Amino acid sequence: MRRRYKTVDVFTDKMFGGNPLAVVLDALKLSTAQMQSIAAEFNYAETTFVLPPRDAAHTAQVRIFTPRSEVPFAGHPNVGTAFVLARELSDQGQKLPERFQFEEGAGLVPVRLLHEGGRFSGAELQAPEALTRRKEASAADAAACLSLKPEDIRTAAHAPQVVSVGLPFLVAEVASRAALSRSRPDLAAHEKLLPGIGTDAIFAYVRAEDEAGTRVLHARMYAPLDGIVEDPATGSATAATLALLSALDPARDGEFKWRVHQGDDMGRPSILLGTIAKRAGVIEYTRVGGRCAPVMEGSLDIGPAP
Asked: How far apart, in Å, are the Cα atoms of 73 and each of 17, 191, 237?
């Protein structure tokens, strides 16, 4: 049986930038093993599989697979899947909803379409979970994971820490853009540290600021334990990091807007836009979005599940 798929580059408006995603549109009756094999075949950071929703009030059930395992939530798969489904509806002449509601392992994920010039250009997700702050790591251990020196890790704002809004990452602030650029994943250090603190990936960032005073981060994400040497754009890690930084901000109320640059050091520049709302010192919601660019479409000739 043939299963249709489309690919899209997420968090960019140009083909061959951002983070590539494969979306399998006809996933009904595919087994988990088949989905995992298809994700391994694409070998993208993630592949999504669109299924009928369990609740008819929702848009779809979306399952997300890395090349090695299924994950309960991820950022660019939600943004890219919403964009692909919107193009499907538009091509069929159907009216686009204001937002999609995806059923995922981490819970219900709302995703709204972004519009520019009267046309949809991307999407923005809302994280399915509140920020949780988990185990910390030493600067030396985080630096080892990044092939850096301990003095390249900043700890004034926070120690390297596992944080999550749906998927956990070790988040570490790096001292300079030059240090971030020369960082590399050290597999042995990842194997030694990350499983024991409840994650398989590290998100490293450095702060910056543009001419208008906008909050800016430059970031890299490494997950070799999950078959992803480096990810060009990581919405779930971005969301968790921005939620953490907003929680640490002394302001008790407000809406914090961020622009995150990722993928530049690996030739796939990406821009992620974050909005965090804080009320009475508590994070109210975390949203991350960006543009998308369609790339390919085709079909998979795969037999019935064994």
From this structure: 22, 22, 11
pLDDT tens-digit map of 141-165: 999 999 999 999 999 999 999 999 9
Residues 91-111: tens digit of each pLDDT = 999 999 989 999 999 999 999
List the one residue out of 247, 301, 237, 250 whose CA is nearest residue 276: 247
| Residues 6 or more apart in contact with residue 267 via CB below 8 angstroms | none
Active-site residue, selected from the candidate residues 41, 46, 116, 211: 46
Q: Which residues pair with 277 in a beta bridge?
A: 255, 285
Catalytic status, residue 46: yes
For 132-289, the fitting CATH number among 3.10.450.50, 3.30.420.10, 3.30.750.24, 3.10.310.10 is 3.10.310.10
Q: Which of 74, 124, 71, 128 is nearest to 100 (CA)?
A: 124
Amino acid at 148: L
CATH no., domain 2-126+292-301:
3.10.310.10
